[in-house]
From TrEMBL:
UvrD-like helicase C-terminal domain boundaries: 70-116
Source species of the chain: Geothrix oryzae
InterPro entries assigned to the protein according to its UniProt record, in alphabetical order: P-loop_NTPase (IPR027417), UvrD-like_helicase_C (IPR027785)
Signal peptide: none
Protein name listed in UniProt: UvrD-like helicase C-terminal domain-containing protein
Length: 184
């Protein structure tokens, strides 16, 4: 394991220098894995961007065929369970809530060589949450008006409700007889 001091201001330059040194030693890009606590795009890196002697492969789970000449980079958790001959871990330069677990997982990905750039990654600037204005006081709906009926209206309503309650298919409600019965 090799620990190298870095800083949020110089980590990209320090990383490129490490990759240059590995290329001079004969290490191939497919043997190298760069791990960080954050996604490459959060750190300002793009897929295909030149990083030292090699272009960067920042697409998760894609390192075959056309990306063979690229150096792989991703989050520690994206490469959990995978290994590489050389692992470069970009350690955060701030107190990360999951720091020890990230470091252990990153360290355990290396088969032969581990390079740690200490205090390299700056704390990412997260967009501020959009503030939602407080809800306006909602006026309660007025209570429904109680309608009063005249005595005649009340009587008609009660007769209608009673008739509806007694109704059966095929029954003539006025006569109380089946609808097909003749009226005399």
């Amino acid at each position: 394991m090799r620990c190298l001091r870095s800083s949020p201001d110089t980590w990209k330059r320090d990383l490129a220098a490490r990759l240059e040194a590995l290329a001079k030693e004969g290490i191939q890009p497919h043997q190298v894995l760069i791990l960080a606590p954050h996604k490459p795009e959060t750190l300002g890196l793009k897929d295909g961007q030149a990083l030292g002697p090699w272009p960067l492969n920042a697409i998760r789970d894609w390192w075959q065929d056309e990306k063979a000449g690229h150096v792989r980079m991703g989050t520690v958790y994206a490469f959990k369970g995978l290994e590489a001959d050389v692992v470069i871990y970009l350690a955060p330069g701030y107190r990360h809530a999951d720091g020890p677990r990230l470091a252990y997982t990153a360290y355990s990905r290396a088969r032969h060589r581990l390079i740690v750039l200490e205090k390299a990654i700056p704390q990412p600037v997260r967009p501020k949450a959009v503030e939602i204005p407080p809800a306006r006081a909602v006026a309660r709906p007025e209570a429904p008006q109680v309608r009063s009926f005249s005595e005649a209206q009340r009587q008609n309503l009660m007769e209608s409700l009673t008739a509806a309650k007694r109704w059966r298919p095929g029954l003539d409600l006025k006569a109380g007889l089946p609808a097909d019965a003749s009226h005399d």
